[in-house]
Amino acid sequence: MKITFCIPSKNNLRYLKSSVRSIKQNSIQEHDIIVFIDSDNDGTEAWLINNQIAYLKNDGVEPKGIAYAYNRCIEAASTDVVCMFHADMHM
Known about the structure:
Layout: E1 3-9, H1 13-26, E2 31-38, H2 44-50, E3 54-58, H3 66-76, E4 81-84
């Protein structure tokens, strides 16, 4: 069974790096990761591109919020199982 980890992030790159590393090192399930960038300006998008991690983003100035981010990630997920994961969580 494949799982998608949905991670909203707003200027949280420091913690997001650790969170993604934790998923990759500790998940025994085959998985996808989708990050929602919510009006970031801390280099998150460049890091995600460089690490080939799927993402969606809010290009607007006003943040959309965590519920919006999770909903967008769920819509984009191609798996039947999704896990709501915060950028500061670890497995």
